[in-house]
Amino acid sequence: MAEAILRFEDKEVELPVVEGSETERGLDISRLAAETGLFTIDRGFGNTAESQSSVSFIDGEKGILRYRGYPIEQLAEGASFLEVAYLLLNGVLPSQPLLTEFEDAITRHTLLREDMKKLFEAFPHNAHPMQILASATSALATYYPDALDPADPEAVEVSVRRLLAKVPTMIAWLYKYKVHQPYVYPRNDLDYAANFLHMVFSVPAEPYHHDPVVAAALNVLLILHSDHGQNCSATAVRLVGSGDANIFSSVSAGIHALSGPLHGGANQEVLEMLEEMAEEGGDVSKFVARAKDKENPFRLMGFGHRIYKNFDPRAKIIKQAAADVLAKLHIDDPLLEIAQELEQVALSDDYFIERKLYPNVDFYSGIIYRALGFPTDTFTVLFALGRLPGWLAQWKELHADPKMKIYRPQQVYVGETKRDYVPISQR
Ligand code: ACO
User: Fold this and answer.
1) From the candidates 362, 377, 399, 420, which is the catalytic residue?
2) What is the pTM (predicted TM-score) of this model?
3) Helix 247-258 and helix 153-178: axis angle, to 10°?
4) Residue whose CA lies nearest to ligand 1 atom number 9
5) CB atoms within 10 A of CB 182
6) Residue range 289-333, pLDDT digits in tens
7) Bridge partners of 27?
8) Alpha helices (runs of H) in 244-312, residue ranges in sequence order
9) How far apart are CA 165 and CA 245, in angstroms?
10) Among this protein's residues, is 399 annotated catalytic?
11) Atom 35 (ligand 1): residue with closest C-alpha?
12) What CA–CA distance (Å, rounded) separates 42 from 135?
């Protein structure tokens, strides 16, 4: 095994180099503090791996993303979302009988407890869907206290299935509450994407037939969002899970992490930015100038990524899918043209070239969601639905690791040194 040597003062420590199955190599510093009294500082964890993972592989320089070894381009082309969920959770593609069994097991859990309606109704109608979804996901733990033990594989399995089955129903119901429409119950004869569209868009007053183009596009979007290594929300899921919190609480933490505009919340912000550009006459250069101005906190939403320094392979597929879906649905959306122009202007600008800022997964996804009929503030819950299998796979992987430890980072204390308490009468 390769080793690196670190010298500090009169101490020398040999640090083993851990090699991954692809290109990655990591320095194992687990003995560092014990042997030197030092620990490392790594803002934003840009240089730090907490664990080894076999769920997804990313090569940010080459623009590669694979789930369990399979390129996302191939999965987006040929697989269903639940097939990908099975792959992420189990590490292998299912045979047809195994997939049917998995789909049936999930379908059995699509209903919510009727009491949950009251939970949605406790929120203001204009509450953000991510807040409601995170709360409802956390609340699921209170309905299923029999299946919360992280060390019980059967409990974990049924909780995984309950989450995959109930999150679409929860999103549909929070949406129905928001728009003052009756809740629509799941239809277990439909596939996952079609059932979700049915619960979101149908009303009891008339028959609803989902558009297969819309269901196919949704399936692709869900697949492309399914996992992405140790990103902010997956890390939140693992961090909360590392304290042996139950899987519902852990996923709820992931939803909260995803809601931020620097993470999944960017998909809503991109669309709002494109709308603002359209309202201001479609001149994108002003916005590009603002994004480059160091005095201005504005950023071009949907641009840049911690890992991708070439292009985001998901964005490439979604850009093409956006154009295809709009053409198939005969929608002429001026925001697509503005997005394409913005991409052109930014990608030929030195500021973006030097910093390797390319469109990310969120840049074009909102345009498709909008074409499919989803309101802007539901975009991030759609991301959460897609990311759910990844969070669950990451949580399971953490708990299957015999070396799992509670996450507990160090700090470099820079506060006051010891001082004595002064009674309030003397201050
Ligand atoms: N617009 C303008 N400038 C940017 C942008 C942007 N979107 N993104 C990064 N930069 C600049 C920074 O100002 C910085 O410039 P400097 O070196 O002159 O100081 C440089 O590029 C590096 O940026 P960091 O913030 O250090 O990069 P980091 O890897 O920490 O951040 C992030 C990545 C958060 C995605 C960032 O690019 C960003 O804020 N993008 C916009 C929000 C967004 O689209 N988020 C979704 C990401 S994908 C996902 O989470 C699903």
Assistant:
1) 362
2) 0.95
3) 40
4) 304
5) 11
6) 999 999 999 999 999 999 999 889 999 999 999 998 999 999 999
7) 17
8) 247-258, 266-279, 285-292
9) 21
10) no
11) 305
12) 31
Residue with tokens 């992931």: 254
| Cβ-Cβ contacts under 8 Å for 136 (sequence gap 6 or more) | 116, 119, 120, 170, 174
Q: What is the mean pLDDT of the chain?
A: 95
Q: Which of 283, 292, 289 is nearest to 341 (CA)?
A: 283
Q: How far is the CA of 357 from the centre of ligand 1 (A)?
A: 7
How far is it, in rounded angstroms, from Cα 374 to Cα 54?
Answer: 34
User: Cα(13)–Cα(32) distance, rounded to whole angstroms?
Assistant: 7
Contact criterion met (CB below 8 Å) for 396 and 341? no
CA–CA dist 250, 252 (Å, integer):
5
Q: How far apart are CA 175 and CA 423, in angstroms?
A: 54
Q: How far is Cα 276 from Cα 135, in angstroms, rounded to an integer?
A: 31
User: What residues flank ligand 1, with Cβ below 6 Å?
Assistant: 44, 262-264, 266, 291, 299-306, 355, 357, 360-362
Q: How far is CA 108 from the centre of its chain?
A: 25
Residue carrying structure tokens 């692709």: 220
The DSSP symbol for 95 reads: P
For residue 15, report the distance from its CA to the centre of ligand 1, in Å: 32
Residue 1 is predicted with a pLDDT of 76
Residue nearest to atom 12 of ligand 1 (CA): 355
Q: Which residue has the tokens 């664990």?
A: 51
Count of C-beta atoms within a 10 Å radius of residue 35: 15
Q: How many angstroms separate the alpha carbon of residue 318 from the centre of ligand 1?
A: 20
Q: Is 362 a catalytic residue?
A: yes
Residue segments in the chain with a per-residue pLDDT below the cut of 70: none
3-state SS, residue 156: helix
Place of tokens 């001149």: 283
Q: Of 210, 305, 312, 399, which one is the catalytic site residue?
A: 305
Bin 319: left if φ > 0, else alpha if -120 < ψ < 50, else beta.
Answer: alpha
How long, in residues, is the chain? 427
Using one digit for the tens of pLDDT, what is the confidence trace for 21-73? 998 999 999 999 999 999 999 999 999 999 899 999 999 999 999 999 999 99
